[in-house]
Amino acid sequence: MRRFGWTLDDSSFRTGRVSLFDAAGMDSAAMMCALVGFSEAERTMAIVLGVTASSQRAVLVGMGFAEVLGDDVTLEELAVRAKRLVTRSAYLPRFRTFGRLRIDLLGRDAYFAGRPLDLNPREFTLLWRLSDSPDVTVSKPDLIRDVWNMGFIPETNSIAVHMSRLRRKLSDVGLPRIIETCNTGGYRLCVRDLAHCHGTTLYAVPDPLPQEPGVRKANGRGNPQTGI
C-alpha cells in the first residue's frame, strides 16, 4: 500500500481513515464475532478482505461495511477502492444521527424523537462543532476559532452563556447530560451511551481529508496493528 502513496498507522479509529480487516482463514463465527464490534462509523470506512463466500459478503455489506472483497484482490485494486472511500468521506451529508438525536445541517436545527429544539444560529453552530468529534473534548480555543471565527479568547463568558442555553434546550427534550464540561475547560458531546441506549449506533461525519491517505489495518481480533 505504501507503494501507492498510503501510510499505515496503528492508532485507533479516526474519521477520514480507512480500516483494513483481513478475514482470510477465519471461520464464519470467528469473523462475525470480530466484525460485530465495529461501530457504524467504522463500518462505513472499513474494507474486509478474504471473504470468499458470496453469501457472507452480502451479509457484511448489509451490515454497513464499505467494501467486502474475496482473496483475489490486487494491491492496485485495493488502493483504488480505499482512495474512493476517503474521497467519499469528504462529502457532508445533510443529517447527523445519534440515537434519537438528529442534527439537520441544512435546516440548521436539531430534533429529538422528531421534536425540534428550535436552536438559534450560535447554539446550532456549537452543537454542529461538538458533533464533528463525538465523545471527544473540544477546547475553548477551538470553539472560539470555529464557531466565533476569532483567533483569540475574548474577555467574555459568551461560550458559557450560549452553552448553557443549548444545554437547557437539550435537557427540555430529555438529554440533560449529553454535553459534558471537561476538566480542561473544553466540552464534549457524549453520544456513545445515548446511541447504545436507544438501539442505534452513532453515525459520525468524517473530518476533512487528511493530507496523506492513511490506512488502519486490523488483525483477526479487530485490534489495530501495523501492516505492510
TrEMBL record:
Listed GO biological process terms: phosphorelay signal transduction system; regulation of DNA-templated transcription
Residue ranges of coiled coil: none
PROSITE patterns, sorted: OMPR_PHOB
Database matches in SUPFAM superfamilies: C-terminal effector domain of the bipartite response regulators
Occurrences of domain OmpR/PhoB-type (ranges): 93-191
A GO MF term: DNA binding
Region feature (Disordered): 208-228
Superkingdom of origin organism: Bacteria
This protein's record includes keyword RNA-binding: no
DNA-binding interval(s): 93-191
UniProt KW keywords: DNA-binding
The keyword Metal-binding is annotated on this UniProt entry: no
Record protein name field: OmpR/PhoB-type domain-containing protein
Lineage of producing organism: Bacteria, Pseudomonadati, Pseudomonadota, Alphaproteobacteria, Sphingomonadales
